[in-house]
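pasting for ref
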Amino acid sequence: PTTKIQGELVNEGSFIDSLNARIDTIKPVYFMASYGGGLKANAWNLLLMEHWRNNDLWNDRIHQSVAMSGVSGGALGQAFYGSILKNHNSDSIQLIIDQLSETNFLSIDLTYLLGYDLIRELTIGQGEYRPDRAQRAFEEYARVIHDEEMNQVDFQSYWAELWHDELDHHAFFPALIVNSTGTHQKQGVASSVVLDDFSSVFPGADNL
């Protein structure tokens, strides 16, 4: 179960006010999108952002971005890089990315998908059961990144801490928009910014 951390969530008004205060100094403005592709997409986004940081492009690409949107592995790569930056110094970031790329997450997925999760669904029926393969995979991500907080707090609280920290250093951190893989003609979206009217921004999507 997740719990709230101390601190204020970032609502739509606060985010827009912060953006407007900096809009004249962060041009050009970027909106980034990452496609899915499992661990490969995850690793690709991590490597890309690390390349930006190593080549003095971080301030240009990230601090001048309004939002980063991703689906599946692409979204995880965007989100995990923030966690890696938060918990590791420059010398160890590439090592953590390599470890994530080499971890056998497929075995976890298949073990639960064709094992524990399948048995519970066949015997108990559909529902939310913990731990499932998604939670088990996130436990492994947290272990490799050395960030247990990602399994203990909700998405908006975790991102808000990063956003406020960047703001304290007179920088800007983009909104994160995580898109789930669509099933049953439905799509789930998680927005790091607390929106005033979610359905008007993401019509037809489930608010995750």
